[in-house]
Amino acid sequence: MTQVFNFSAGPAMMPKEVLQQAQAELLNWQEQQTSVMEVSHRGKLFMDLITQAEQDFRQLYYIPENYKILFLQGGARGQFAAIPMNLIGKKNKALYLTSGHWSATAAKEARLFCEIDEINILDQDPELKINRLDFSDIAEQYDYVHYCPNETISGVEIFDIPKVGNTTLVADMSSTILSRKIDISQFGIIYAGAQKNLGPAGITIVIVREDLIGNARQETPSIWNYAVQAKSDSMINTPPTFAWYLCSLVFKHLLKQGGLEGVEKCNQEKANLLYQYLDESSFYKNNVVKNNRSLMNVTFTTGNDELNAKFVAEATKAGLQALKGHKVLGGMRASIYNAMPIEGVQALIQFMKKFEAENN
């Protein structure tokens, strides 16, 4: 049987070792002769699990003590609404930096709750490129500044942190979280859907500085109110316990791999390998400048829609799954999150060479 490599942008592949452990414990977790999905979320064993999960996540990211970690539901889209409901204050306005589909979607949702200014920081001609990151001259007039460090659809990543002075910086890190080291103290809020690097779909992590908690507008639903969730251990309703459990296993797995130092080195190696081949090829093209090429989502095209469709179909038969690009952009996209081994990237390049030789 051909080995399968899953390049899905999300829900994405998870570490094999984590899935094997979950499989082994599925019917008998913690010697309880029952599944983790079947125990009380407020029982001692599960409370111990979430306490340890938070400690492991803090250790991975070196999260300062003055930040709360919330494990919520509703995905990143839920946070698109929760953030203005919790953060809009005396200035009554937010700034959204748009660099692609998801940052623009966040801005559109925020308009339902507050006044915003929107600045497009992406140049598209001749290649995709971030054109500005210093907003220290205007940021003080806003309650917060929001951006998305990694756009999964276009494969654009912002490695430098925007300059916003003393204004609260908010980041949607759904597709880049835990892929490389960052300085958490530079942010007021970081949020991320789990289905890329953290675990399965169904749970969302919010890292929020404590001074930003407790300022929600009166009509904010309890499920989106950070103060309510923080006081309730993210459990004002029954949480997605199995997703939380799987995230806890992922955190331990990453710590065993040497933490984010080792993770970042591996991700850089994988991305460099694939981009080097794309640069050497006259058959495929990546349309992002080198300084903004995503470590997680590598986009490419043959420039021919029929050839692109043939590539995806034949790649799937060869065990290289989910390489079709997003419908917004087309082409191909290889999502190479933490769980993707370098052997998967090598197998993809081998196939790309074969396809190029047969179709050039």
UniProtKB/TrEMBL annotation:
Q: Per the annotation, how and in what number is the cofactor bound?
A: Binds 1 pyridoxal phosphate per subunit.
The pathway to which it is assigned is: Cofactor biosynthesis; pyridoxine 5'-phosphate biosynthesis; pyridoxine 5'-phosphate from D-erythrose 4-phosphate: step 3/5; Amino-acid biosynthesis; L-serine biosynthesis; L-serine from 3-phospho-D-glycerate: step 2/3
Q: Which reactions does this protein catalyse? A: 4-(phosphooxy)-L-threonine + 2-oxoglutarate = (R)-3-hydroxy-2-oxo-4-phosphooxybutanoate + L-glutamate; O-phospho-L-serine + 2-oxoglutarate = 3-phosphooxypyruvate + L-glutamate
Q: Which InterPro entries does the UniProt entry name for this protein?
A: Aminotrans_V_dom (IPR000192), Aminotrans_V_PyrdxlP_BS (IPR020578), Pser_aminoTfrase (IPR022278), PyrdxlP-dep_Trfase (IPR015424), PyrdxlP-dep_Trfase_major (IPR015421), PyrdxlP-dep_Trfase_small (IPR015422)
Residues bound to L-glutamate are 42
The protein's superkingdom reads Bacteria
Q: Which UniProt keywords apply?
A: Amino-acid biosynthesis, Aminotransferase, Cytoplasm, Pyridoxal phosphate, Pyridoxine biosynthesis, Serine biosynthesis, Transferase
In which broad location class does this protein mainly occur, judging by the first location in its UniProt entry?
Answer: cytoplasm
Keyword check for Chaperone, yes or no. no
On assembly, the entry states: Homodimer.
Protein name, UniProt field? Phosphoserine aminotransferase
Origin species: Bisgaardia hudsonensis
Q: Which gene encodes it?
A: serC
